[in-house]
Amino acid sequence: MNILLLGPPGAGKGTQAKRLEERYSMVQLSTGDMLRAERVSGSALGKRVQAIMDAGELVSDDIMIALIASRIAGLKGKGFILDGFPRTVPQAKALDRMLDENGLALDQVIELTVDENALIDRISGRFSCKKCGASYHDRYHQPKQEGLCDVCGSHDFIRRPDDNAATVKARLAAYREQTAPILPYYRRKGVLRSVDGMAPIDHVAAEIETILNNAKG
Ligand code: AP5
User: Fold this and answer.
1) How far, in Å, from the CA of 217 to the mean position of ligand 1?
2) Do 164 and 124 meet the contact criterion of CB atoms below 8 Å apart?
3) What is the pLDDT of residues 14-62, one digit of tens each?
4) Cβ(81)–Cβ(3) under 8 Å?
5) Distances, alpha carbon 161 to alpha carbons 39, 50, 124, 126, 168, in Å
6) How many angstroms separate the alpha carbon of residue 99 from the centre of ligand 1?
7) In whole angstroms, what is the distance from residue 26 CA to residue 82 CA?
């Protein structure tokens, strides 16, 4: 099963993608994580995208399409979850071409619908494990044992530089203006489903599972 998770910043795409990855051994393809890894490595690409990400703007389609193309090629035979790509109509069209060339297709596109007013609170409380990337929240999702990652046991946690109120507003504007227009694109293809992303994390995960189980028939 190949799926795409859509939704504004803080909707819970990464949280749900990690769950699906653990439960169904699917491969998570998060373009945000890929870009952050480039930044940490100090690569030319990482330096190029740093200011754009910190301003909450979108990286150019050319860069993003090249970045994801290198990963799509190795996916045959593995279920995958796209998280953060595509984010514009040109990216969605390029994705279709890349999948087609590799004999792949999207089975489900799942939109997490959320109340924008809750997102700044969600994002400003977010922290992640530095080692494995597992995502937590100061109030909504704390590690079971304080200071220890549930997934890998690391003690090292980080907060993202773009997780502040001013940048979140710019990211939400980018979502509304550039990403939301891809929803009708997938609706027309008949693969778009919506899940209430305001429900507790476990409920959202259960809803997604129901969609995937129904799709398997
Ligand atoms: P990216 O890393 O993709 O960020 P984003 O889309 O803004 O999404 P987030 O990671 O902030 O949110 P999420 O939906 O994954 O929420 P999460 O599960 O963590 O992109 C970063 C930047 O990279 C972009 O701004 C852009 O510059 C660039 N970029 C990336 N891809 C690009 C592309 N294709 N084109 C152009 N530029 C690109 O949850 C958030 C918090 O809420 C967590 O603390 C979590 O524990 C909590 N939470 C989750 N679900 C719930 C729930 N149901 N109830 C309560 N709390 C919850």
Assistant:
1) 30
2) yes
3) 999 999 998 998 999 999 999 999 999 999 999 999 999 999 999 999 9
4) yes
5) 12, 10, 10, 11, 11
6) 23
7) 10
